[in-house]
Amino acid sequence: MTEITHPLDADHATPLSYSEGLESRLRDRLHLQRLRAAPRTLGNRLALSLALIGPGLLVMLGDNDAGGVITYAQTGATYGLSLFIPMMIPLGFIAYLVQEMTIRLGAVTRRGHAEMIWKRYGVFWGAFSLFDLVAANILTLMTEFIGIRVASEIFHVPYLVTIPLAFAFIVGVLVFLKYASWERVSLVVAAFNIVFVPLALASHPNWGAVAQTFTGTSGWVVPGGIFSASFLILISANFGTTIAPWQLFFQQSCVVDKGLITKDIAASRRDLMLGVTGMVVVAISIIILCGQYLHNLPNASSLGDQDVVNGIGAKLGNGAMIIFALGLLEAGVIAAIVITASTAWAIGEALDVPRSVNVSPRRSLYFYAPAVLGTAIAAGVLMLPNVPVGFLNLTVQVIATVFMPAAMLFLLMLLNDKELLGEHVNSPLRNALSVGVMLLLITCNGLYGIATVFPNLL
Asked: Which residue range(s) make up the domain with 286?
């Protein structure tokens, strides 16, 4: 195992030679330091809490991406108001459990996730984890551009226009903004994720039936049984859209680039919990909306984005269809922003080049170029005609579930390294819960594989 020197400052092991990036980073960190040192009045504490908001909200609202929106819609359309509604709450706790570990790892070591794996476990495992991440990110970005493409068609704008415009915006936010501005713009975009909640409320669902899903009095009936391929693929897809490898890399690098330290762990946990709450509420809203009005449509489990949006329009009118399309567009854009950033940080850390959103492209081409290229590939694929969007969406979510146990294994090994984390290592309870999540993911993947290859065996 390759040794790594524990960092004692907020910068990287390689001396920073990019003065403009360093100045921006120091300015952000001095601002946080002044807030930490200010008298502990209510106003100052509130200002510090607001300043520390960002990584947790972005990672979880970005997790409600275009692929996730359609996965939740397919879930509601297939099983109606069912056990998938209360299931979102434990999935939210699982997301919190996993992402909280990246907060501690980033705040204590002040290094990104890819850098930690690369330097702690060597080139082979570093390259392995990076390949998994980049491949999964490109596939996931395709689902984001699916959402953008479908939304543009609802507004009668050719997707050959909207996809390049969205690509330019996503890349421009990363390349031309400093971290503080990048975070603020991303948070503004992410805030529109909430549009699905008033849409669900305005649809006047059967709240009695919704309540019964939490008590189990509705019987939690699963047509076809819990070992049916359709049920197992939706279970895997819902796991995949709740926790994915890119989230580990993104949030830890975001914590580092923002300049958070061990004193900020408690505030970062609150930020994460706020994001998890938003994710769960939005997911439940979409399942309720589509469970109420799209349930029992033909081939519900394979509905594409266009089918879902048109179905909402047919049941609730043109206004609801437009709001849903806007939410789908926002979900694709915010997820593409954060996933592109996760690729940039991970590759920059692996190549040991200047790796901060504060750095200009001319100072760190190898930080920006691979991420831009990956996003361009995804956008290019979705500009092709006849892309099988429904199949691609569910497949990507399941692939994320397949990749996740390996990503969690590296995370767990790092969180149990006392040399790195000292008193911030995982507790036995956290380890047990994390191992349980890994086993659950492996079990879901295994059962889905068996149900697909040997449909009569289960």
From this structure: 19-401
